[in-house]
Specification:
InterPro entries: AraC_XylS_family_regulators, Homeodomain-like_sf, HTH_AraC, HTH_AraC-typ_CS. This protein is an alpha+beta fold. The chain folds into 2 domains: 3-164, Jelly Rolls (Sandwich); 173-294, Homeodomain-like (Arc Repressor Mutant, subunit A, Orthogonal Bundle), CATH 1.10.10. The protein is built from 12 helices and 11 strands. The chain has helices at residues 104-108, 114-117, 128-144, 147-164, 172-182, 184-203, 210-217, 221-232, 236-252, 260-266, 272-283, 287-294, and strands at residues 3-7, 15-22, 27-34, 45-46, 50-58, 60-64, 67-71, 75-79, 84-88, 95-102, 122-125. Strands 1-2-3-10-5-8-11 form a 7-stranded antiparallel beta sheet. It has a 4-stranded antiparallel beta sheet with strand order 4-9-6-7, with no helix packed on it. Helix 6 (184-203) packs across helix 7. It is globular and about 70 Å long. It starts with a strand and ends in a 12-residue tail after the last helix.
């Protein structure tokens, strides 16, 4: 994954070490660690994207639209394009954070996104549950997630974040569930949407991203992910992984099958270790052992000629 030392990937103000974790379907997520070179306020700049900053360690000061806020490991800051902000590091300890930068089109597709589109800036705190979800997302990204799975996890995390924050207002998810129970036609439409998504995933190769699958079934990624989970009891990622592992098992059973590194690439895994982890989680054995178990043995009298 890309790493660097310099300014933040899009915000040319604070010198920082940063590491991009992924950029699937209009959501850039990266880690940053600010380097304390000057405790004074940086130059004020206007954000160009919707941004979520989650504190991880240390502390700093943010000034958003003229109002100063403390950013520490419990902090959650949400801004929108045009918000003017600068940062200062008066505590001498620097700070590390995770940042999500979200394209407007992503929020426009979400029923809860309007609250961001209409908001000029917000700051608050993440509770222990949200903080753990954030750190697990980072850890899993560092271990290796393919673009599809990362996109779905990020959409789910955004939904969880908005439910937690003051931006969420009411429980939009509960409203949808009540509407589904009241209207059988809605439930039928949701089942049809989930079935169509299963068809797309089962009949396509594994290079399609979440946004592409959603486009093919005529839904937003957020709506498709939620409906699929409600109807099937499984996330899109889990279903897709079940399909991938079954395809992998078929290939592992071939006597002259490809090496595991190429197998991982063929089926859309990040790398061989990602392939191994997903296969082991699903069937209890790593691919190398499964290859030994699944490749047909030669009959005793069928020995190659020398």
């Amino acid at each position: 994954m890309p790493e660097g030392t310099g300014s933040d990937p899009r915000r040319k103000t604070t010198p920082a070490r940063w590491r991009v974790l992924g950029h699937p379907d209009g959501i850039l997520v990266y880690q940053g660690q600010c380097m304390v070179e000057n405790p004074d306020w940086t130059e004020t700049v206007a954000d160009k994207t919707y941004k979520v900053v989650l504190g991880r360690s240390g502390a700093s000061q943010y000034r958003i639209n003229g109002r100063s806020v403390l950013v520490d490991p419990t902090s959650l800051v949400i801004t929108r394009p045009g918000d003017e902000q600068s940062a200062a590091h008066p505590y001498g300890c620097g700070d590390s954070f995770t940042c999500l930068e979200i394209d407007p089109e992503v929020l426009a597709d979400r029923p809860d996104g309007a609250r961001w589109l209409d908001r000029s800036g917000w700051d608050g705190h993440s509770d222990a549950s949200l903080d753990l979800a954030h750190r697990l997302l980072v850890a899993e990204s560092l271990r290796g997630l393919d673009r599809f799975e990362m996109a779905e996890r990020l959409h789910r995390f955004l939904g969880r974040l908005l439910q937690h924050s003051a931006l969420a207002g009411d429980d939009e998810g509960a409203e949808i569930d009540r509407a589904v129970r009241r209207r059988p036609a809605t439930l039928a439409a949701h089942r049809q949407l989930a079935d169509r998504a299963r068809e797309v995933l089962a009949t396509s190769d594994f290079t399609l991203g979440l946004a592409e699958v959603a486009r093919m079934v005529g839904a937003s990624p957020y709506h498709l992910s939620r409906v699929f989970q409600r109807v099937t009891g499984s996330s899109l990622t889990a279903y897709r992984n079940r399909l991938r592992v079954r395809a992998v098992l078929d290939t592992l059973a071939e006597p002259d099958g490809p090496p595991l590194g190429r197998l991982a690439s063929d089926y859309g895994f990040t790398d061989q270790s990602h392939l191994t982890r997903v296969v082991r989680e699903q069937v209890g054995h790593p691919p190398a052992r499964l290859r030994k178990l699944l490749v047909p043995k030669r009959p005793a009298g069928d020995r190659p000629q020398i």
